[in-house]
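User: Hi! I'm working on a homework problem where we have to compare a predicted structure to a textbook description. Could you give me the structure for the chain below?
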Amino acid sequence: MPQQELIDTFRALDKLSEKELRQANKYICDKLSQIRTRASMMAKYQFNIDDNVEYTAKYGVVAKGKISKINRTTARVGYYNVPFSMLRKVAEVEKAA
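Assistant: Happy to help. Predicted structure tokens:
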């Protein structure tokens, strides 16, 4: 959306009543939810059981593992359920000696 259209939209919002603003807010929240759900589902179909993956865990630590189970919104990697949006495929998991 061009910058000027966005500015015009914001100005139009200033003229709305509280009830109309609540309706607009609900519409925007529903639309964002649809976008997130679609993105999550697309990410889900990129992974399979036994895929080698990595993800950034707490404090920036990169964890690697294999997917052992695929749930509705997460994949089981080691002991953890990790959201698909956090997973990245890797070629091979290095075994610690």
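For your comparison, note the following. The beta strands are 52-56, 62-70, 74-77, 80-83, 88-89. The mean pLDDT is 90. Good luck with the assignment!
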